[in-house]
Design goal:
Elements lengths: L23 E5 L5 H13 L15 E5 L10 H4 L1 E5 L7 E5 H7 L1 H12 L6 H5 L2 E3 L13 E2 L8 H4 L1
Parallel strand pairs: 1-2, 1-6, 2-5
Antiparallel strand pairs: 3-4
Helix pairs in contact: 1-4, 3-4
Protein name: 50S ribosomal protein L13
GO molecular function: mRNA binding; structural constituent of ribosome
Keywords: Ribonucleoprotein, Ribosomal protein
Length: 162
């Protein structure tokens, strides 16, 4: 089946979504707000910055987030925000911990859970989530991919911009 001669709208093909030409991006989360970092990461993982974006295909690139342990939250979320995890399949086999406790135990998990909540659900969720790499320090094993720094694209609140 060839191109649709009656419709000039561009539709991406499977070759457009192939992993061959995926761009790598890096975000430094030190001192940045949690939701703003996660929103930018989800935006680039989905590929919404590209003109060939299609919501049903994996068009985006890989996002590396460093300094995940130094991300900031506003208000009283440090003590009030809770995370749930299931330890086994038995009744009552789950644990509740605050953001402060999770930051001490697994600081990468905070950003992973936040970005995962911003990605679409369904069969595309797992391949998209695999494009996120989060590290608690500045060292990461993806220097060979020469990631593009997009930390400056994190939007600021109007009061912070002044």
């Amino acid at each position: 089946m060839g191109a649709d001669k009656w419709n000039d709208t561009y539709y991406p093909t499977a070759s457009d979504a192939a992993n061959v030409h995926k761009q790598w991006y890096i975000i430094d989360a030190e001192g940045q707000t949690l939701g703003r970092v996660a929103s930018l990461a989800a935006f680039y993982i989905r590929g919404k910055h590209m003109p060939s974006y299609s919501p049903s295909m994996n068009m985006g690139g890989y996002v590396v987030i460093i300094n995940a342990d130094k991300v900031s939250v506003t208000g009283r979320k440090e003590t009030d925000k809770t995370y749930f995890r299931h330890t086994n399949g038995r009744p009552g086999g789950w644990r509740v911990e605050t953001l402060r406790d999770l930051r001490q135990r697994l600081p990468e998990r905070i950003l992973e859970k936040c970005v995962k909540g911003m990605l679409p659900k369904g069969r595309i969720a797992s391949p998209l989530f695999n494009h996120l790499k989060v590290y608690k320090g500045t060292a990461h094993p993806h220097e060979a991919q020469r990631p593009l720094d997009i930390t400056s694209r994190i939007s600021k609140k109007a009061s912070e911009a002044l």
